[in-house]
Amino acid sequence: MKKYKHYVFALLGVSLLLAGCGNQTGKSSSNGALSSSAAEKVYVAPGEQDEYYAFLSGGYSGNLTVYGLPSGRMFKEIPVFSQFPTSGYGYSEETKPMLNTSFGFVPWDDAHHPDISQTNGELDGRWIFINGNNTPRIARISLSTFETEEIIEVPNSAGNHSSSFITENTEYVVAGTRFSVPVPQRDMPINEYKGNFKGALSFISVAPDNGRLNLEFQVLMPGFNYDLSHPGRGKSHGWFFFTTYNTEEANSLMEVNSSQNDKDFIAAINWKKIEEYVKNGGGTKMPANYAHNVYDEHTHTGTSTMKKEVLTVDPTEVPGAVFFLPTPKSPHGCDVDPTGQYIIGNGKLSADLTVHSFDKMIAAIEGEKFDGEAYGIPILKFEDVLAGTVKSGGLGPLHTEFDANGNAYTTFFISSEVVKWKLGTWEVIDRKPTFYSVGHLMIPGGNSRKPFGKYVVAMNKITKDRYLPTGPEMEHSAQIYDISGEKMELIYDFPTHGEPHYAAGCPAELLAPKSKKIYRLSENKHEFATISPNDARVERNGKEVHIYMSTIRSHFTPDNIEGIKVGDKVYFHITNHEQDFDVPHGFSIIGQNTSELLVMPGQTKTSIWEPKQVGVWPFYCTDFCSALHQEMQGYVRVSPANSNIELSWSLGE
Ligand code: RUQ
Ligand code: CUA
């Protein structure tokens, strides 16, 4: 039956292709990517499931989206740094603390680089991390609940871009600053930047049992821009590599002044050495102020704590820990191959790719063959560390990923293409256009020791004519290439949400079997939970009113409440008593200044309502939960501030 369906679909694909040929216009038509076999490759029949999960950063949406590969179907948007009315994240009392920062409540960010936790350099599917660029933060998301569990702010950082990449046993999630800033922040003239600003590279430990984050130390580097980073792996485990630009330390007209040097650097950081130095009492404690927000799965509640200190490390105090590898032309991406031998610097203003050799780097360090220093940090000789150059013929290389067969795939922004080349021989094997202006690309596991090299997803910055127009604003566009053969084959286009920068992917079987289905009501430790409907009640405490409410198809208990007054602050604490997979109930009330709540089975969430007008006001369930969903409603009677109507409520008996 399945074969037959594919056959029919294949025929359909051919006829579509034929019909399409005559009237297609624009650049894309000449490519003729759609073929019957391409259609079959991405077709996941109704009722069947995808082979891979793909997590695409949402960029300026601040969130993370979950897709299936190869279908390109979007499964979920996970709210991380942005308020999200769909679930009430950042609106409910329980989740507001997750968005607390030293700048107060910051309900948005620019999320760039997701990375899945690893054990021995292989994806282990416990957590996924992502960075907030704008108000520097790192988030940890559970891959069993697919919810944000923790957010830590990164002090002394700005434009937290060379983040969030993890070491091969998830010892650290690493965050580097894009903008150098005064450390500590202070009032000073901008034109005194040079020599005075610092670039903080932060090493945040991840507790192996529960994933808890702790900012262990910050390396205070010279005032360059730290653009991207990747961990060493295998033989280079223990090192971390960061691309830099603006080694000129310019502070205005950056597009000209920061491109003067022919070469910038890749900074190689031996974090094991620094870790040891710190363990032996090295480093300087500096006053700081940054938020650490943790969400507890059992209390269903987030808490925010302000941290007051950070340990900083001056790299010149730890000999042998930090080196600069000259790398041409303002490199952007910094990628390490699965063996850990090659470090690729994608010089965004060049045509060639520079590949450094880890072994050569170690030999050069041991031979102390330096080419001067920058702020006390030794600069290695370019020729001594160079493994090879990929003469690609493309323009504007940005990012590189790897398959399991010794091939690398690099995106070229300016020439809009993906180029496949061979590690070690540097020969170009294939190139395929992207539509248009590709940024990152992702191969599931392509950022680990064990890539699953079946598909590459290219994430494009410009969409133009790929979809039906939707006014001036178009969603960004991703493209899937089949890379199982020698040549890449473009097999699918799909729209994405926000601006995906990086992505991370893994085989479905790593996550699907352990994906949480419900929260156990018996394990609900929420302070305001209503565990039995008999406990449903309303309590007044001055002008604060707490409503302990439970929900089950299709009833709110209590459903009618009287004795609320204008000027009260009403807390609806709603516990969902369902213990069935995929049966949320929603809650919303007229005039509420937040969003609805979507409460998962066994969970408690709280919404605040401040009634401003006398009347009888309805509330209702926002999720179509049963045939009697439209009956899932209630009323609140709101009386004048000075009335003496007693609190009363109906338990629906
Ligand atoms: S970026 S398109 Cu990772 Cu933010 Cu390169
Ligand atoms: Cu509960 Cu609709």
From TrEMBL:
<dbReference type="InterPro" id="IPR051403">
    <property type="entry name" value="NosZ/Cyto_c_oxidase_sub2"/>
</dbReference>
<dbReference type="InterPro" id="IPR001505">
    <property type="entry name" value="Copper_CuA"/>
</dbReference>
<keyword id="KW-0732">Signal</keyword>
<feature type="signal peptide">
    <location>
        <begin position="1"/>
        <end position="19"/>
    </location>
</feature>
<dbReference type="InterPro" id="IPR041114">
    <property type="entry name" value="Nos_propeller"/>
</dbReference>
<dbReference type="InterPro" id="IPR011045">
    <property type="entry name" value="N2O_reductase_N"/>
</dbReference>
<keyword id="KW-0560">Oxidoreductase</keyword>
<keyword id="KW-0479">Metal-binding</keyword>
<dbReference type="GO" id="GO:0005507">
    <property type="term" value="F:copper ion binding"/>
</dbReference>
<dbReference type="GO" id="GO:0030313">
    <property type="term" value="C:cell envelope"/>
</dbReference>
<keyword id="KW-0186">Copper</keyword>
<dbReference type="InterPro" id="IPR015943">
    <property type="entry name" value="WD40/YVTN_repeat-like_dom_sf"/>
</dbReference>
<dbReference type="InterPro" id="IPR008972">
    <property type="entry name" value="Cupredoxin"/>
</dbReference>
<dbReference type="GO" id="GO:0050304">
    <property type="term" value="F:nitrous-oxide reductase activity"/>
</dbReference>
<dbReference type="InterPro" id="IPR026468">
    <property type="entry name" value="Nitrous_oxide_Rdtase_Sec-dep"/>
</dbReference>
<protein>
    <submittedName>
        <fullName>Sec-dependent nitrous-oxide reductase</fullName>
        <ecNumber>1.7.2.4</ecNumber>
    </submittedName>
</protein>
<dbReference type="Pfam" id="PF18764">
    <property type="entry name" value="nos_propeller"/>
</dbReference>
